[in-house]
Give the backbone structure.
Amino acid sequence: MAWIDRLKKGLTRTRSGFTDSLGRVFARGTKLSAIELEEIEEILIAGDIGARVSMELTAELAKRRGRASGEELMSTLEAGIAERLAGSERPLALRKNGEPTVILVAGVNGSGKTTTVAKIAARLREHDRKLPITLAAADTFRAAAIDQLEIWADRVGVDLIKHRIGADPSAVVFDALDHTHRVGGVLLIDTAGRLQTKHNLMEELKKIERTVAKKLGRSSDERLLVLDATTGQNGISQAARFNEAIDLTGIVLTKLDGTAKGGVIVAIWDELKLPLLYIGVGEGVEDLHEFSASQFTEALFVN
Ligand SMILES: Nc1nc2c(ncn2[C@@H]2O[C@H](COP(=O)(O)OP(=O)(O)OP(=O)(O)O)[C@@H](O)[C@H]2O)c(=O)[nH]1
Ligand SMILES: [Mg+2]
């Protein structure tokens, strides 16, 4: 299945709660009473695009009511969302000068970090057969976490650096950096899930980044936060705390297929101004893809 079709399928729940509901309001007529405008604003808020954007978009519709068809009102919304997502996409920062690229992946428990590390590795492998790729198993809390990453490394055909359970994650990263210096290419660091409110765990994450900075003589190239789309607006407060700790460079939004709140993409960009590098719409390797604002909007508004 082509990515755009996967994306459309993944956004089915968001579309039915969001676009379809709006379509039903417009189908009743486009004069839009005050009550209908309120209804529209509620649908937008329920889609998790954020209170401010919801208010602004409703105001834009109010300006055009009675003078536009339902289709035109829908296009107004589509354009409004597309406009607000401008600048939200960016490709992974890969170093081209032969120096290693280091990507640190963080997030709360179960957000999809490990599978995201594997899926990014698979995408890089797909684009460049010869690129050396190393995964660092820096989630040393559970033996299962190391095994899970090892299975992925074998499946995708990339190197894995691991220590025993309970080891210092920074020590794993130290060794993985040594390895990457030797072989070149890209290092992806999988970290343990941590609540953004747990001070010691956030300190551990900072230590991992300090290890990278010390050994490389510069910061990591990407510090990505993996957010589970089903957590909706709570993801925004998670991002703020992770950002304070490690100065995030971007977001990966997973599990868009499991929510009607896919509009949270708009709120994340609007409130955080952190670029969205990848989005996930399923558990398979092919379900993670570089984010494209125009594709997302198209998939959201498709009939
Ligand atoms: N439906 C769906 N499931 C996903 C997506 N991304 C990840 N998952 C699933 O979410 C579950 C958790 O994924 P992991 O990658 O293990 O999450 P994690 O953040 O590494 O978890 P911890 O290491 O325990 O913190 C797995 O069953 C994944 O297959 C997605 O985009 N859609
Ligand atoms: Mg994990």
About this structure: The chain has two domains: 3-84, 101-301.
